[in-house]
Amino acid sequence: MALIGTFLRGSDGSFTGTVRTATLLLSVEIRLNLGRRPTSPDYRVVTASGAAFGFGWHTPHPRLGWFVRLILDDVTFPRAVQASLVADPVGQDRFQLLWSR
């Protein structure tokens, strides 16, 4: 898994940070999906300009406790990107975005 972003958790449960790849540099926010239905994602991912960029699900994990499983997508991508937002081992309220294939 490659590190493609770093995030801070806000007091409202959202995450703000930057997604950085070889061709992409975006400020994004992973927002709680308030008023969601049981089949809806737990989070919505939006860019700083407000464009939709993906969805996320709060996922339990036996070793990590939990993480956020994300699907990021844009019209410029050949296909959606799967990623995981996990706690940074060195910083409280800091998270790493890991790209997985």
How would you portray this structure in words?
It is a single chain. The protein has 101 residues and is mainly β. The protein has one domain (2-100). It is built from no helices and 8 strands. It has strands at residues 2-9, 15-20, 25-32, 43-47, 52-61, 65-72, 81-87, 94-100. The protein has an 8-stranded antiparallel β-barrel. A hairpin with a 4-residue loop joins strand 4 and strand 5. The chain is globular, with a radius of gyration of 13 Å. The protein starts with a strand and ends with a strand. The model has no long low-confidence stretch (mean pLDDT 91).
Features:
101 residues, mainly beta, 8-stranded antiparallel beta barrel, 0% helix, 58% strand
